[in-house]
Amino acid sequence: MAMSGRNGKFGFNRRAVVAAMLASAALAGCGGGGSSDAGSENVVAASVDGQPEKPNLKLGFIKLTDMAPLAIAKEKGFFAEEGLNVELEPQANWKVLLDGVIGGQLDGAHMLAGQPIAATIGYGTKAELIAPLSLDLNGNAITLSNKTWAAIKPSLPTEGGKIAHPISAKYLKPVVDDYAKQGKPFNMGMVFPVSTHNYELRYWLAAGGLNPGYYADGDVAGTIDADVKLSVTPPPQMPATLEAGTIEGYCVGEPWNQAAVQKGIGVPVITDDEIWNDNPEKVFSIRKDFAEKYPATTAALLRAIIKAQQWLDADNGANRAEAVEILSRPNYVGADAEVIAASMTGKFTFEKGDTRDAKGFNIFFDKYAGYPYYSDAIWYLTQMRRWGQIPADHPDSWYMEQAKAVYRPDLYLAAANKLVEDGVIPADSVPETDGYRGEQSGFIDGITFDGSQPNAYLAKFPIGLKEGQTVSASGVSSK
Length: 479
What we know:
Elements lengths: L13 H16 L8 H9 L9 E6 L6 H8 L2 H4 L3 E6 L3 H10 L4 E5 L1 H8 L7 E6 L5 E6 H7 L5 E2 L2 E2 L9 H9 L5 E4 L5 H12 L21 E4 L5 H6 L5 E5 L4 H6 L2 E6 H4 L6 E6 H6 L1 H19 L6 H8 L9 H8 L2 E3 L5 E3 L16 H13 L9 H11 L2 H13 L32 H5 L10 E4 L2 E4 L1
Parallel strand pairs: 1-2, 1-3, 8-9
Antiparallel strand pairs: 3-12, 4-12, 5-10, 5-11, 6-7, 13-14, 15-16
Helix pairs in contact: 1-2, 1-19, 2-14, 2-19, 3-14, 6-18, 14-19, 15-16, 17-18
């Protein structure tokens, strides 16, 4: 079996030894959220060789192509190699999936990165969930209705005879203003209040000068002072909702943007890697007490998923065609293989006749895609504060504590380093890091992000809550 970056058998080299040391350091620092116990974490991270305590498992997912690591781990036998008998069960929507993990009906799930973070800080629901692995980078896009696309297309700059990318939301502003003059709301869809899609859509709109609205304390609509009103629609229902005219556009993962192209009902205008290059997307999430009760099972799950991630990115995507066939099955994504392949095989179609190379649209293993960086969690927390889901200011240390309570690189490193030791993945696929990516650029608005300075980052945005501001039904106010 061809593996990405693999060349014979690998053992521990300097990088792997450093990574193992970092795992110990991460263990020592993971108690910051007030909900972690360092002793139990040491037990969890050390249990990498034992037989799974709970071999029969049920994992949940939503019908999106980025659930691929779970499907591949099942279909290519990686779960079985680790002594696990896993049932994969599609869920109706993200709320049902979240409740299933919290209530124990599901042992774990393909989950929005914001969900375990929100549960930990008590937004929407309160539960101790952890994210020991990131499933992928990128994978989303924003699609507009044909009517809206026709309205903005004439004003868009071109390059080499094609529409120049990335497309700024500033070109949408005249359309939104026209709706306002007519007394009509301009509605767009996203998949869940704490989804990457919500924050990416908001980021894109705000970067173009459009306010996507604020959340008051206890409010789940998030439409206060909004120029564009966002609402929740489950991913598979996005194309039908757009076609019905309920919304004028949406942000969703694949294959539901390409489905709009195939149906001829909408045009994707920007991919999320153009909003934030190589952004983290979904996570694999489990309850904290599950990891503590079943440490060997947790380690086995992570090893199997990491193997699947590597398989997906192996040999410059040589396995993607097979992955497309697997995902197209009705028990997984259940969309036409042609639609799934449109983004999974290194291409992305914007409008018919405009298909472009998009090798990095889905990244599962390369670029340390699986490592759960604290700074990724902190970015989500900053966006929750930016739009009012976190109603009050907090010091930088609070953001770091919440990130460490949820994101668990110690567990990831324990599993990944065992795979390095066994020669399954290359040592240089495990990052040398303190858990932070460092300063990141690649955002559509040119603003840089440093996870160690969340409040300084929040102060940079022209649109978004500033220090001391709060939101009520009447709008934003300052102290």
